[in-house]
């Protein structure tokens, strides 16, 4: 069962924040979004995080990371069952949350 947005993000229902507005529009568990809409939202959030990280570490480390991960991403796209993608995403998200 999905947990509400407030479980993951710090905000108070009714505080007028963007998270509050998202909850109001799409439900506390995003139940009003279809699968494709959730994937677009995930893509946008991931891209924002990536661009912020690149700005923090600089273009050279980002280029090195991209070179290292390109064959891995290709291998995942070609060989990992699509049903395993969300599990891998969840594992990476949990690692990122606690990695400094």
Q: What's this model, at a glance?
A:
This protein has five helices and no strands. The chain has 100 residues and is mostly helical.
CA-to-CA gap between the ends? 29 Å
The ordered H/E elements are HHHHH
> Could you give a short account of the major beta sheet?
none
Number of helices: 5
Oligomer: single chain
**Percentage beta strand:** under 5%
Low-confidence parts lasting 5 or more residues at pLDDT below 50? Answer: none
CA radius of gyration: 16 Å
Question: Averaged pLDDT, please?
Answer: 94
Give the fraction of residues assigned to helices: over 70%
Key phrases:
single chain, 100 residues, mainly alpha, 0% strand
How are the secondary structure elements laid out?
Layout: H1 5-8, H2 18-26, H3 35-57, H4 59-79, H5 85-98
Helix pairs in contact: 3-4
């Amino acid at each position: 069962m999905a947990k509400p947005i407030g479980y993951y993000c710090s905000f108070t229902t009714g505080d007028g924040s963007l998270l509050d507005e998202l909850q109001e529009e799409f439900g506390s568990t995003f139940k009003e979004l279809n699968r494709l809409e959730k994937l677009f939202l995930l893509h946008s959030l991931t891209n924002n995080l990536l661009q912020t990280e690149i700005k923090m570490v600089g273009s050279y480390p980002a280029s090195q990371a991209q070179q290292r991960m390109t064959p891995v991403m290709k291998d995942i796209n070609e060989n990992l069952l699509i049903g395993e993608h969300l599990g891998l995403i969840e594992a990476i998200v949990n690692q990122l949350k606690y990695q400094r």
